[in-house]
Write a structure and sequence with these properties.
Elements lengths: L1 H7 L2 H4 L3 H17 L5 H19 L10 H13 L12 H37 L4 E6 L2 E7 H26 L1 E2 L15 H7 L4 E2 L3 H6 L2 H28 L6 E2 L6 E2 L7 E2 L1 H24 L14 H23 L2 E2 L1 H8 L6 H10 L4 H17 L9 H5 L15 H7 L8 H15 L1
Parallel strand pairs: 3-4
Antiparallel strand pairs: 1-2, 5-8, 6-7
Length: 442
């Protein structure tokens, strides 16, 4: 029997909800007192007892183990103030209690994760400002494509992080619905005041359907989805950091504390922190799949399966908080090797699109211009030349539309400055992006 109780128990992981549970219970006791469901004297004793338990927990005291944290708090309250503590559970079920606790907890943690993203965005903006003159190749299919500013590349991640904050804010709106008062599944015959509960617990909305309220875990699944998207973006960033640290690229350096040596090869420094962040995405994605699978096909209302929602939520939360902290510090240590990025940009004929645009601006259909430039590149490859090394006479072999000003269109700084369309890689656009992100940070 002991093993059975241990199997169905959740205390080992829902102990994390202790403070949220007590905060919710204090509000419930205040509501019971206000509505005269329990006497003022009993209400005061219950509230004082709960506040003392909360104070002790914050001091490091360990609450005795029970089946779950909700029963543990109630049992400890009864131990401290006597049978009157049993009145706390009037007009309440563990079904609406646990749903409320998790929502209280996640509302706080959503704000914490958004703050961590803010910090990462600030670092990205600072690094973009520091590297606004660093030219590097932009890639598609991991092949050299067009010249861009390193700042533009960094700001791409700042905007990804902005979308992640927006998603979390939307998730917060749906988490900000109070289920307390739904009882087990059908509501309660006691004349409770759910609006007062919502005000005490700082919830903007109250659940409309008690069946839905006690069984809904959409908000938890959505939260882990939001975390998964953050993790996905961090893997992209880390993959590029790993590539750029490779001597074949040699675009950047990072602090030695974010790397490790090889056990056998003394020359190597491995980008372990970036690799671990990249690796943890698998655990986070797995947490999302676990939640979706857990919630699949469950009949209304509450089922014990739902107690298993917390482990994947806590795991995803812990991992993303750690990853954001590490990647922020790693990015803060990042430095671009300017001569290496510029040298790399000179490979792969990445000014080719500008030549096609040049012809298009001279009334040649772009598709025709594309074919002309493709032939020019093949000519360069055959003759071991770069686009910059060709003479005007050689350009004119492919089209009489080429004039002396074609060479202006081969200069990387000019190419970048001409990308002045909104959201482009020009310095003017970069400065505008930085200001817009800073406005979002405020």
């Amino acid at each position: 029997m002991q093993d059975y109780e241990h199997f169905i128990g959740s205390f080992s992981f829902d102990i994390r909800l202790a403070e949220s549970d007590i905060v919710g219970s204090i509000a419930h006791a205040e509501m019971l007192t206000k509505t005269k469901i329990i006497s003022t004297r009993d209400g005061k004793r219950i509230i004082s007892g709960l506040k003392l338990i909360l104070k002790d927990l914050k001091r490091g005291w360990k609450i005795p183990r029970e089946e779950d944290i909700h029963y543990a708090v109630e049992k400890e309250l009864i131990r401290r103030i006597g049978p009157v503590g049993g009145k706390l559970h009037t007009a309440r079920s563990r079904n609406d209690q646990v749903a409320t606790d998790l929502r209280i907890y996640l509302k706080q943690e959503i704000e914490t994760v958004r703050d961590l993203i803010n910090n990462f965005q600030k670092t990205l903006v600072e690094k973009a400002s520091d590297n606004i003159d660093v030219i590097m190749p932009g890639f598609t299919h991991l092949q050299p494509a067009q010249p861009i500013l390193a700042a533009h590349h960094l700001l791409a991640y700042a905007w990804m992080m902005q979308r992640n904050k927006d998603r979390l804010l939307d998730c917060y709106k749906r988490t900000d619905t109070l289920p307390l008062g739904s009882a087990a599944l059908a509501g309660t015959s006691f004349k409770i005041d759910r609006q007062y509960l919502a005000k005490l617990l700082d919830f903007s909305n109250i659940s409309e359907n008690s069946l839905d309220a006690v069984s809904d875990r959409d908000f938890a699944i959505e939260f882990v989805f939001c975390v998964s998207m953050i993790s996905l973006h961090l893997t992209k960033f880390c993959e590029e950091m790993i590539l750029w640290l490779n001597p074949a690229f040699n675009y950047i350096t990072i602090g030695a504390q974010f790397t490790s040596g090889s056990s056998i090869m003394p020359q190597k420094r491995n980008p372990d922190c970036a690799e671990v962040v990249r690796g943890k995405s698998g655990m986070i994605f797995g947490d999302l799949i676990a939640l979706l699978t857990m919630a699949k096909s469950l009949p209304l209302a509450y089922n014990r399966d739902l107690q298993e929602d917390k482990l994947p939520v806590f795991d995803a939360l812990d991992n993303i908080k750690t990853c954001l902290e590490v990647i922020n510090k790693m990015t803060d240590s990042l430095k671009f090797v300017k001569d290496k990025t510029l040298k790399s940009a000179k490979k792969g004929f990445i000014a080719a699109t500008e030549i096609a645009d040049y012809l298009a601006k001279n009334n040649i259909p772009f598709r025709t211009a594309h074919g002309i430039v493709k032939d020019i590149v093949l000519y360069c490859q055959k003759n071991s030349k770069t686009l910059e090394e060709l003479s005007l006479e050689e350009y004119n072999k492919f089209s009489p539309m080429f004039k002396k000003d074609i060479f202006v269109h081969l200069d990387f700084e000019n190419i970048i400055s001409m990308k002045a369309s909104y959201g482009g890689t020009s310095k003017k656009s970069i400065l505008r992006q930085i200001e817009n992100i800073k406005r979002n940070l405020k």
